[in-house]
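Note on ligand handling. Small-molecule inputs were canonicalized before submission; formal charges were left as drawn, and no protonation-state enumeration was performed. Where a ligand contained multiple stereocentres, the stereochemistry in the source SMILES was retained. For pyridoxal-5'-phosphate, this procedure yielded the string shown in the input block below.
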Amino acid sequence: MTERDPQTRAVHPPVPVPAGSRPLGVPIYQGHLFGFESADALAAAFQGPDEAFFYSRMGNPTVRALEEALADLEGGARALATASGMGAINAVLTGLLRSGDHVIAQASLYGGTHALLNDLADRWGVEVTRVGGDDPAEVRDALRPHTRLLYLETISNPTTHVTDVPALTAALAGSGVLTAVDNTFSPLLFAPLAHGADIVLHSTTKYIGGHGDILGGAAVFADAAVHRRVWEHSVELGSTADPFAAWLAVRGLATLPMRIARQSATARDLAGRLAAHPSVTRVHYPGVPDHPQHDLAERLLPYGHGGVLSFELAGGRDAGRVFTEAVRLISLGPSLGDVASLVMHPASTSHRQLDAAALAAAGIGEGTVRLSVGLEAPDDLWADIEEALAKAV
Ligand SMILES: *Cc1c(COP(=O)(O)O)cnc(C)c1O
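Structure output:
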């Protein structure tokens, strides 16, 4: 056989398949396509997510590693990893709902989810009833013949409201309504599927990735048939996770238990110090005894209450803004769950569209500051907070 031209050989380098050993870490399969020996084998691959990998929008070994890890950790049958948390939420909502369906949703939800539900109501004819998240009777009363989904968040932002997931799912037992729970604030701390939920959602951008270097999301399903419906829809949406981002999320999982435990402990410590400070009128953290759902939080989240807390400054709106600009070690930024601590003033940023009455209804004060606690030494964080508090009064 004649030697092929270097131009051809450059396009077809050898692809070694390890023999005699195996990689101990998850390899990054960055390529989006896979080759086959026969046309029949390729045809079979088109049949669904359990067949051979063939094109990464439908499935990829690195993305699958993340999906299997999350399905295992959440106690689910299957998982779907997506390009962002909103990608997972969108795949689930638009994959399972149709015009005329009814959703019961917690009133206080992540802003993007809130906007998506409004959009589904305005443009797609999905009916949405908002409930508080504390009262099973309110959920039972909201049930209609065409209700398909109950949508909750374990811990909501920035008030750290803890939702009674087992009581609310029990209120709909036997109705056939699926419950989806956004567990972004409490991965490993709470397992919604063990408490009656059917679908768990994560923004892996936050605690699971943990290092501020990816966007990603995932949905974990108790029932493989529900996964299959959402998987088919996600293939149409194109909301699939990128392999490298999925790989970083898998790597993040290895240190998640230690990070979330440390972040929870530091948040508890700072919540106590903040509560005793004269410039702070109120602290919201499920781990402090005067939190409205403290007992529920102790029962549902025995290993810690997460790394997000918020507190209200006596000086109101101006004090909130000045505080978030005065911190030096802590960064002013919108995300959470990072190894580095972050603060934000919701009234002037994430919740700026709400007027005073709407803010009050959402339980957010003009001077509320949200703090996402990182892995810094607690005393260094407190020194930064104390200095910024002195400037903010
Ligand atoms: C950030 C976040 C999302 C959205 O995740 P993205 O990865 O930014 O798309 C959804 N839910 C909660 C609770 C979040 O904090």
